Amino acid sequence: MPHRPCQLVLRGTPLLHRQHCLNHRTPWASRLANPRVGWWFGWLTFCYLAIGVVTVDNTLVSQALMPLAGIAPHESTARLITLVVLLVQTVPAVASTRLVSLINTVTVGLSLALVVVVAVALVIAALLTFDRQALETEPGKVNSFTREAFTREPPKTLTDRIDAAVRSR
Q1: Does the pLDDT of residue 41 top 60, yes or no?
Q2: 3-class SS at 159?
Q3: Are 104 and 110 in contact (CB under 8 A)?
């Protein structure tokens, strides 16, 4: 065992780089002790999570849901409602991959459709506001703007701006 922190870091770094999930016990146990130990840690974690979910759901049903719904407190009723709650939680968990894929597909399609709608609306707005007659009669005038409007000096002071605004009306 190294006595200096630097040696500990240098010796531990290669092991850390090989770990896929640093905070999980299973890869650590598999790497440090034995793959069978890692396998048992994995099953232990799975059983803990399964027991924890059922325990939390049963507690919520018996202590919160049943009194709120006005159901008489009875253990078999709480267990039955817990099974229903677990089934309701299982369906989205199992279908989550397809559900997320479906939601992503719908939102991307909707986004693309909205982009097309906005582009078409902009083209229609440009065509409706384009003044072809003014362009044919006065080549320097397009959409009620003249070339002089783009080339003249902007007013310098506030009073000049107010005077320019009054004159333009």
Answers
A1: yes
A2: helix
A3: no
